[in-house]
């Protein structure tokens, strides 16, 4: 049994979608984003450094960019998730290429799981996520209730 209790929160209709891609996957993310441009345009987009710059140019949409992933951008996105300022994560990662910042990547995926946000790790899962009826509507979901934990009521 978990020591953390849970509560409910509401994801708003306009989602904050983080877009991240490893170097070998950036072109896949750009192509996918272009196909999904109309859906993405209805939401707030944020990304790690280079990916954000490439996305904003390709889509001609505003994209809030963090710093480069290996320099801490993955951690910035993770912090936003923990602060409940990211609602969905699209992370095209390269399963064939070792990454020097692998611990940061694992931490990002872990915090996304802790905060129960939808995560897509490739084009197929991203297509399914963006085709969900929940994409453009507010809905409730379960999140950790850290107020009880901090109050010592675990």
Task: Give structural attributes.
7 strands, 5-stranded parallel β-sheet, two-stranded antiparallel ribbon, 154 residues, 7 helices, alpha/beta, Rossmann fold
CATH top level assignment: Alpha Beta
CATH architecture: 3-Layer(aba) Sandwich
Output the strand order for the largest sheet.
4-3-2-5-6
Task: Tell me the domain tally.
Answer: 1
Rg (C-alpha, Å): 16 Å
Main beta sheet: 5 strands, parallel
Q: Spans of 5+ residues with little confidence (pLDDT < 50)?
A: none
**Secondary-structure element series:** EEHHEHEHEHEHEH
Q: Cα distance, first to last residue? A: 11 Å
GO biological process, one term: methylglyoxal biosynthetic process
Binding site for substrate: 22, 26, 48-51, 68-69, 101
Active site: 74
GO cellular component, one term: cytosol
């Amino acid at each position: 049994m978990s020591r953390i209790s849970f509560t409910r929160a509401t994801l708003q209709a306009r989602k904050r979608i983080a877009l991240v891609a490893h170097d070998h996957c950036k072109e896949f993310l750009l192509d996918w984003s272009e196909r999904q441009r109309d859906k993405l345009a209805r939401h707030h987009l944020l990304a790690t450094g280079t990916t954000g710059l490439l996305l904003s140019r390709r889509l001609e949409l505003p994209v809030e960019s963090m710093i480069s992933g290996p320099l801490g951008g993955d951690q910035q996105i993770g912090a936003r998730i923990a602060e409940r300022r990211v609602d969905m994560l699209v992370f095209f990662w390269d399963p064939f290429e070792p990454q020097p910042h692998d611990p940061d990547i694992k931490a990002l995926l872990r915090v996304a799981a802790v905060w129960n946000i939808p995560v897509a790790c490739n084009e197929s899962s991203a297509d399914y996520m963006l085709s969900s009826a929940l994409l453009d509507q507010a809905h409730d979901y379960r999140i950790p209730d850290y107020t009880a934990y901090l109050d010592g009521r675990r």
